[in-house]
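# nightly structure sweep
# worker-07 picked up a monomer target from the shared queue
# config: single-sequence mode, recycle default, output format = structure tokens
# input follows
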Amino acid sequence: MDRHVAASDEGGIEREYRKRRETPMGRRLGLLIPLAVLGLRGLPHSGLPLLLAGCALGAALLATARTALLLRRGRTLTGPDGISVRRALTGRTWAWADVYDIRVETVPDDRDHVRKQLTYLYDTRGRRFLLPQLDDWQLDDPPAEVARLRTAVARYRGTAWTPRPKTEALIRRRAAHRKAWTWAFFGAAFTLIGVFLLLAVLTATSDHSPGFTTLLWVPLGVFVLIAALYHWRWESLAPPERPSAPGAGREGPRPEA
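# output follows
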């Protein structure tokens, strides 16, 4: 068992997955760079309204503080009564009867991320929740650890680790909607960059350029349009159906319940 996993007995169910390795310096600097840019150029000299610039800087500060606190405080705990997670400021507990599956999933475009594998809890309603510190940065082999955990949990669950078609359908639908929001965000972000460039050109070449507030509605409209389109056609974004039982395949061997 990995050194960062505390257990009451070898192979037991009482475990605590906590931080073992420090966050790479590059990622720490990556959290500070946006703040530096906003602090130096996001205030009155940027041409943005002071209130809007202040709100952007405040939001960036809160997001950075939350991420740093989550990296320090976040952990996952398991016991006979269920599984608990501690986040930056909050926590949550699930009884084992409410847990549909625990899955290790590969991060898309993993070459750009420190963590290549993340572990998620799926409840019986198909909702997905990240389990802090159960990743390949803190664990030597996340799929193997999750397989051992599922084996230890089996005797505490009211049902076996078997696939349920209705829950799998909910998982696929929710995954498609998450991807729809992601595409909508990126579409709005690229549109916002174009709006800034257009505003800069109009400001330099015209005496009556439109205000930033007016142009802000364009990326918002793009966000709503893309989100509505993909939510309507969510099937095109849904991941393929899982051909085997929960937890099988790339996530590791399926333990016997």
